[in-house]
Amino acid sequence: MHPRNPHADRYDFPQLIAASPALAPFVTASPHGDQTIDFANPAAVKALNQALLKQFYGVQLWDIPAGYLCPPIPGRADYLHHAADLLATLHGGTVPRGKQVHVLDIGIGANCVYPIIGTHDYGWRFVGSDIDLVALKSVKMLVAANPGLSGRVEVRQQTHANYIFDGIVKPREEFDLTVCNPPFHASEEEALAANQRKTRNLGQPRTAEPVLNFGGRNTELWYTGGEEAFVRNLVEQSVPLGPRVLWFSTLISKKETLPSIYHFLKKAGALEVKTIDMTHGQKATRVVAWTFQTPEQQQAWATRRWK
């Protein structure tokens, strides 16, 4: 994991339970003699997230509506720290901090995890967009309940299913970075089949009614055409905003998607593309980032905005 990621080591369950006693009932002994939770149990996964967010990010109250995505915190932190390094290359090797760094979280969901990490670790300011009103209401409640998020996280509803930036980015508004955790699957059936495979990998039997251990509503998990189609739209719709966004980025779950993404980026005229590989346990994933600005324009941007 990234060297600034505090989750690189194994979970310290006694420490996590001290921070959040509600985790205790879910902690059991593993076959190897150490402590763990049942990662196939959605309630256990949520309790772990609550403890992690409280211990490492000062979040006193965190919850999500039933069935909404409960993301793995270590992987989300890795993404943000690697993205921060992109900005640091234009800032003397130091990550720019404070409210002057403006980040757009595309599809913030109900969990608000990227803004939680980014505001705590770097003091950044976020806009979170989503098409789901229940998710946005959840984020507003989280922001209101946690003073560290106050004044740093704004939510905006996307009212058009095919638009990503239109209706969200205001005229003349600028963003130093966009982040996105796109829906990976092409259908609900594909998402459920993938979850069944994950459940079997966790040693759980196949069930007639699969339970999504990390949750996820339809707009969080699947999109017509899958990850490739969503990211293609993301790339194409990023072009007009090239002068007003320094770095666009997205998580890419499937390495098989990369060749087509590179094709879309070349066709769109991206001037620089970076692929950041990440490994979390046995899972390999990657972030693809791109910009439409020349090196000279990038440096002028940093000088103007991050004084």
TrEMBL record:
It is an enzyme of class 2 (transferase). GO terms for molecular function: 23S rRNA (adenine(1618)-N(6))-methyltransferase activity. Its EC number is 2.1.1.181. Its main location: cytoplasm. It catalyses: adenosine(1618) in 23S rRNA + S-adenosyl-L-methionine = N(6)-methyladenosine(1618) in 23S rRNA + S-adenosyl-L-homocysteine + H(+). CDD domains: AdoMet_MTases. Specifically methylates the adenine in position 1618 of 23S rRNA. Belongs to the methyltransferase superfamily. METTL16/RlmF family. This is Ribosomal RNA large subunit methyltransferase F. The gene is rlmF.
